[in-house]
């Protein structure tokens, strides 16, 4: 049903400025306003085909389309992601003969080409006699290739990859790019090599993947400006969630706009999506520099939460946030004692239960627990399971299935020799074998794998990893064979570093197996592994990005604490306990899909959504904020707090642990925006 515009929305609807920048607060009706503009433009005679409704993610596109329907906009209006919009233009250039559309490659082909690029960079180092500790053998680790793909994506989003294919490429300072992105220079070199293979001569692409559509179109339009004349130009561009725009998208929209009207709406305090290259500057100074004629409008008042949250987030962001009359959000403070294991989770679960029982109409699905990062879910998940509260992990993986935990679980199976709990559990085996391979190293290169290990029974349709997974699925005790005979076995082609890791893990498992009688509990084994192997370094190898590696190490520590809390349980009993917990989780996901479940999610995944009751755990130093980047940490907290409608509960250390209070809520940082970083 269409809403009556508020006075602020009415001002925007009446504006005829050629460029409009709407700066809004959370829940202020951003998407609704864009839908109203589209609807009114059509009512004034503009055809739906002349309006480009754009968003940056599939989720945002869906919400925009929903709002168009709610506001009664004509059905002919289509919302696209900017990536799809670019692809449409690339197809157009192809139909006019200006471009040979390159073959689209699959994720697997992309990975193979990255491995090839790494190999070429390594050969360059060899030829030049440059010594390096960097392990170029990325084919040995699925996770390292994944990480490289992520780096490449960011470089493309920032249009940095265009520099790699310039004629004067040698002058590009790769070190500068590596410092800016906080990454080893060798990773940047591999990306540069990949791009040169992909674009052997300017504007000619040997292949294309989804992340290439926007940067490639920008590249073509820079090389051949006349191509713009062949493209379709909208009379009105409406761009939602503008705070998510990255450099490549910003540039493309600027190129396509021409004489069209441009209306963008965003909330600069919601910039937390750096993985896709979103940057704060595009919501402010860069936009105004590019469009000095832009008229700015505010949407200052939230329709989601009441004044108590408005006041709190105004302090946090140093920006005036207001709420519409009649809204009321109750704030609760939950206290816990950080040194007591499980204390925060217990307080959170007790509160969730109280909220659920307080009124009859409250469903579990009206309640969301939002953590800063996914590794913080372990205690909470365990407490939810113990309390028999149905829950689902939204856009995050349950701790029981995270690679670092599956890796530790695999070691427990191998050391104890108990495999019963893996019987008939094909999906856990699949994830566990993959995790073991990623952490210790195995070749992702199919041919090499087959030559070295898989002498029999191979099917040409399967990848090497799939072959191994199938073996362990059939006979779970083959996990030991997989570890000894494949994962930890030296091969000719291993780099020195890989050999060292294989030797370390091999020795660790051999020693633990030999001494298994003196290691009766899971906690004892997990502690011993951490004494024998430098776990942060091992994790860092599988997950090179520091923040993700830190999060994985924290996961392992929490998992060890959970094992300690299980007391004298034998390893077999502990593994059975885990299977039981996992069983409850999957039973809930399958059988109760349509029934009410509490939502457990992270700030990133919660963006753009809202719940009646929101609980934020672990608001303490080192947990939230998690990094020294307080400005970004504040934006994370802002997004988290503004998801609440009726109640918001903040869980923080009790008065006895004031030294652990979060600087985001207390002290200098909370008052001024400055402050001490997390320890
Ligand atoms: N003029 C209006 N009258 C009444 N309700 C409105 C009006 N405009 C928007 N709303 C409602 O306010 C709520 C928030 O709107 P919307 O989802 O568009 O906000 P947003 O700013 O995009 O949120 P986010 O914080 O997720 O970015 C929705 O329930 C919407 O239906």
From TrEMBL:
Gene Ontology molecular function: 3'-5' DNA helicase activity; ATP binding; DNA binding; hydrolase activity
BP GO annotations: recombinational repair
Coiled-coil positions: none
Binding site for ATP: 24-31
Keyword Transmembrane helix: no
Record-listed E.C. numbers: 5.6.2.4
Sequence similarity: Belongs to the helicase family. UvrD subfamily.
Protein name: DNA 3'-5' helicase
């Amino acid at each position: 049903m269409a809403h009556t515009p508020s006075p602020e929305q009415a001002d925007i609807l009446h504006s005829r400025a050629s460029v409009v920048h709407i700066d809004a607060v959370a829940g202020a009706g951003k998407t609704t306003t864009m839908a109203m503009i589209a609807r009114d433009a059509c009512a004034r005679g503009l055809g739906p085909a002349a309006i480009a409704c754009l968003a940056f993610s599939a989720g945002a596109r869906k919400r925009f389309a929903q709002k168009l329907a709610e506001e009664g906009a004509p059905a002919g209006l289509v919302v696209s992601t900017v990536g799809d919009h670019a692809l449409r233009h690339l197809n157009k250039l192809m139909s006019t003969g200006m471009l040979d559309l390159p073959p689209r490659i699959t994720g697997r082909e992309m990975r193979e080409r990255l491995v090839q690029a790494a190999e070429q960079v390594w050969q360059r180092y060899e030829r030049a006699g440059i010594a390096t500790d960097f392990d170029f053998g990325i084919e040995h680790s699925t996770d390292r290739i994944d990480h490289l793909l992520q780096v490449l994506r960011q470089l493309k989003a920032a249009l940095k990859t265009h520099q790699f294919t310039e004629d004067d490429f040698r002058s590009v300072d790769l070190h500068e790019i590596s410092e800016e992105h906080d990454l080893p220079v060798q990773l940047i070199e591999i990306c540069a090599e990949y791009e040169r293979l992909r674009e052997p001569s300017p504007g000619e692409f040997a292949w294309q993947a989804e992340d290439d559509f926007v940067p490639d179109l920008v590249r073509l339009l820079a090389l051949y400006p006349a191509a713009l004349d062949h493209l379709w130009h909208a009379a009105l561009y409406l761009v939602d969630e503008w705070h998510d725009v990255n450099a490549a998208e910003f540039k493309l929209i600027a190129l396509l706009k021409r004489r069209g009207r441009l209306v963008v709406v965003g909330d600069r305090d919601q910039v937390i999506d750096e993985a896709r290259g979103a940057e704060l500057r595009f919501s402010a100074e860069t936009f105004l520099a590019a469009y000095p004629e832009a008229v700015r409008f505010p949407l200052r008042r939230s329709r989601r939460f009441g004044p108590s949250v408005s006041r709190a987030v105004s302090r946090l962001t140093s920006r005036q946030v207001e709420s519409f009359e009649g809204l009321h959000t109750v704030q609760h403070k939950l206290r816990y004692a950080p040194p007591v294991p499980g204390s925060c989770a217990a307080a959170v679960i007790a509160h969730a239960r109280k909220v659920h029982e307080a009124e009859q109409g409250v469903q579990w699905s009206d309640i969301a627990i939002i953590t800063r990062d996914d590794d913080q879910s372990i205690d909470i998940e365990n407490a939810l399971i113990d309390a028999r509260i149905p829950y689902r992990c939204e856009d995050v993986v349950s701790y029981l299935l995270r690679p670092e935990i599956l890796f530790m679980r695999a070691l427990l199976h191998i050391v104890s020799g108990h495999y019963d709990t893996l019987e008939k559990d094909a999906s856990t085996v699949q994830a566990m074998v993959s995790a073991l391979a990623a952490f210790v190293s195995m070749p992702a290169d199919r041919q090499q794998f087959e030559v070295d290990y898989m002498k029999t029974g191979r099917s040409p349709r399967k990848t090497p990893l799939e072959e191994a997974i199938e073996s362990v699925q059939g006979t779970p005790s083959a996990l030991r064979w997989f570890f000894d005979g494949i994962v930890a076995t030296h091969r000719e082609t291993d780099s020195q570093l890989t050999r060292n890791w294989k030797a370390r893990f091999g020795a660790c498992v051999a020693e633990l197996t030999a001494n298994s009688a003196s290691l009766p509990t899971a906690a004892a084994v997990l502690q011993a592994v951490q004494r024998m192997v430098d776990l942060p370094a091992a994790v860092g190898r599988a997950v090179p990005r520091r923040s993700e590696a830190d999060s994985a190490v924290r996961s392992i520590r929490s998992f060890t604490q959970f094992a300690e809390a299980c007391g004298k349980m034998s390893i077999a009993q502990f593994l059975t306990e885990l299977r039981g917990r996992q069983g409850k989780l999957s039973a809930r996901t399958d059988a109760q899909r349509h029934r009410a479940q509490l939502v457990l999610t992270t700030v990133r995944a919660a963006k753009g959504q809202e719940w009646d009751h929101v609980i934020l755990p672990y608001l303490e130093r080192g947990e939230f904020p998690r990094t020294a980047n307080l400005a970004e940490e504040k934006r994370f907290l802002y997004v988290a707090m503004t998801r609440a409608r009726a109640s918001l509960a903040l869980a923080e250390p009790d008065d006895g642990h004031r030294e652990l209070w979060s600087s985001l809520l207390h002290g200098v940082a909370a008052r001024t925006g400055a402050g001490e970083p997390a320890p």
